[in-house]
Amino acid sequence: MRGAGPGSPAALRQMNQAHVLAAVRRADLLRLGEIAELTGLSRPTVVAALDELCEAGWVSFCDDGPPGRQRVGRPARVVRFRAEAGFVVGIDVGAHTTEVVVADLDGVPVASARQSTTGAHDRTQLLGVIRATVHDALTRSGIPRNHVMSVAVGSPGIVNLDERTIVQAPSLPGWASINLAKELRSSFRAPVLVENDVNLAVLAECWRGAAATTRDVVFVLWGERVGAGIVIDGRLHRGSAGAAGEVGYLNVLETAGGDAVADDDGLGPFERAVGSRAIVAMARAEASRPRGRTSRIAAAGPELDALEVFRASEAGDRAARRVVDAVIARFARGLAPLLLVLDPDMVVIGGRLAGAGDAMFEALRASVRRLCLVAPQIERSMLGEDAVAIGAVRLALSDVEERVLPRLDSASLPRRAATTRAEGRARAEAPA
User: From residue 253, how far is each of 256, 257, 336 by CA, in Å?
Assistant: First the structure.
């Protein structure tokens, strides 16, 4: 833009707006003097920046103090960020469930929806489930689609960010090579971002989870699948081909065998050795032996679940304990090379098997300590099954912050958000 180069009046105004907006977003409610103190800007400069931000719809003024209290003299005015100026959508696409979260610009969820994907046997059916779940979440929120400023989707598999395609996704039928952004872009006016689901989970844990104060983190999804998301010095590490963290394809165990390829069920060698199916298979084999026939896992029948094996072990069942000990030893041996190379501050365990009890975590910590020179902190995910959707919200918010909100390294002026009910109504009634 002409006249908006470094040092130009437009660029300086943009920088002032960015400083002021950042201060308001951090503290929520601030007086003018407090903003000037926090930003180091003069009071007239702060007022000018706030006028522009208010006109653009990003901030508003309100009276200071709790409602109903009598005041003497003119009430002080404070500034707040208008988190309702726009909304983002985070989507978690899984082999069993699709979850959608609609959130405001503070990342606060306003509605969510969840639907089963187990009946989707091809990409057309799965896309239908995704669209229906999005529709459900937006209907519950009351947010028109044209108020959505960014959409982020988490999917299993390797994601090619340049081509916006899913390169590999063995757990989802017909999903490989799909351009998910293009497929969903027709449903929104906003950009659609696509990222590996475990990468989004680690972003979520660093944002609002167990690793919120940590700079170097490995998030490990442990369930039927096994995968890792890696954050180094506060930044997501994807690798040159987006395949960083695909630990399900590790082949470091004698029990794994074969090449680093998925089997007919979409599971890699490490997943076949330590995933939910492997644990259940080991438990059934143990229960079939004479010493295990009185075990709780022998009485569980065909519906035996991997978590039941961990619970039986904690309850003192010897056969279950032998299975759990073997699985934890395998799991630690698979993690050790990753931890020795990356030396993270923390490992966060998520996924279904993170629901095992504290005894499992203590045993895993002890096994890792024996295999690593410096053992990291190992914690349970705080976000549970919502981690991927929350990470998708975080990615969508980052897109809005990069592309739309005033930034220190951008000379473009902020786009205008809906500031009046009439404008909001007009946008809501516009054709999608």
Answer: 5, 7, 12
86-202+388-407 against 210-381: fold identical? yes
Percent of the chain clearing pLDDT 90 (strictly above): 68
Residues whose CB is less than 8 angstroms from the CB of residue 302 and which lie 6 or more positions away in sequence, other chains included: none
First to last CA, the chain: 30
What sections of 40-106 are H helices per DSSP?
43-56
> Which of 53, 108, 118, 112 lies closest to 84, judged by CA?
108
Q: 350 with 381: CB under 8 angstroms?
A: yes
Residues of the chain short of pLDDT 70, as ranges, are: 1-7, 64-76, 254-258, 292, 408-432
Q: What homologous superfamily is domain 210-381 in, according to CATH?
A: ATPase, nucleotide binding domain (3.30.420.40)
Question: What pLDDT, on the 0 to 100 scale, is given for residue 8?
Answer: 79
What is this structure's pTM? 0.87
Spatial distance between the Cα atoms of 346 and 216, rounded to a whole number of angstroms: 7
Spatial distance between the Cα atoms of 277 and 274, rounded to a whole number of angstroms: 8
Task: Reduce the DSSP state of residue 166 to 3 states and report it.
Answer: strand
> What topology is assigned to 86-202+388-407 in CATH?
Nucleotidyltransferase; domain 5 (3.30.420)
pLDDT value of position 75: 56
CA distance 194 to 399: 12
Residues 234-267 have pLDDT tens digits of 999 999 999 999 999 998 776 655 677 777 777 8
Domain boundaries, the chain: 9-81, 86-202+388-407, 210-381
Give the separation between CA 407 and CA 397, rounded to whole angstroms: 14
The sign one gets for the Cα dihedral 177, 263, 300, 352 is negative
CATH code at 9-81 = 1.10.10.10
**Which pair of structure tokens corresponds to residue 257?**
């065998």
The β-bridge partners of 87 are 104, 148
How many helices (H) and strands (E) are present in the chain, helices listed first? Answer: 14, 15
